[in-house]
Amino acid sequence: MRRLFTTILIITASFKIKAQETSIVADSLMLKNQIPELGFVVVSADSVLELKTLGFHRIDIKNEQTKANINDYFHLGSNTKAITGFIAAYLVENNKIQWTTKFFDLFPSWKKQSNPKYLNITLADLLSHRAKIQPYTSGLEFQELPEFEGDKSEQRKQFSKYLLIEKPVKNNEKLYNYSNAGYSIAALMLEKVSGKTWEELIKEIMKKKLNVDVRFSWPNKINLNQPYGHWIENDTLKPLLSDTDYNLSLGEPAGDICMTLPDYAKFIQLNLQGLLGSDNILKAGTYNFLHFGLKDYSIGWGNINNKEKQLSEHSGSAGTFFCYTLLDKNKKLAYIIVANSATQETQESIFKLLNILRKKYGK
User: Would I find Hydrolase among this entry's keywords (predicted)?
Assistant: First the structure.
């Protein structure tokens, strides 16, 4: 087992001054666009250059108890895909499965009842959105599903059977067709070869080997004194209460985990180290495949890869939080910005802040 390099987190006095300047801009954007809480991180391969959370857990209750905290959890949405891809890579490196493993080689008894157009789909196809699985990117698609029984893993198994009976996506012009549901099928493959549920793999690999804490579902379901997601009701931004009937367990491997900014930054920093040629939990070549192995979208990461730019990125939102992550291989930097709302104004603010951070550090 390769030794995980210890990441030294260094914030110098000059970076603290820069952080104060950025905080003023972020505060202004939050006030103007009704963003309850916002956090941002800039990392190099061996340092945290800037790390800050601002605002409050809820827009309707602003006091010392609900004030933003560096250890607040934020929902990552579809940035979960990079973590599922990371777990798949770990199993590939440990010879449990291959990127080219076909789904029906692991589940041969499913062939007869499945659409024959899916017979050759592989693990890499599913994780890179090239298996033509229906998207399931809207709540309406999930609402129209039949009820599945059992624990999360069993429900995803039934969901996968349902998906593989459906017609594939028809669009042949795109290199990939984005699908949350494809990640549920891929997770089933990882469970089959490991003998563990996807949730158990998260705990084994992310928590034990990387020493980062990963939780499932919304932060305020962990603890009421955590950030609340927000959405628009009757033209007003309101917090999503913890007992709201809003279940993403069928698509959990695609987009239903939350992490603190320091822990998520550690995960992203490992990816950046790998892209810059250092082995850690995974080999450097594996990281390069995850981010740039396939054009436009590889394994959990969208990308731009040419002579001028080598960028990998992903945004994630289930409608009440928003997370954006960018790794700039050429500049040797990574950026993370999160918020506990996902309105159009919030997203525009996040990208304005991103541009400011990139101008500041990416010179």
Answer: yes
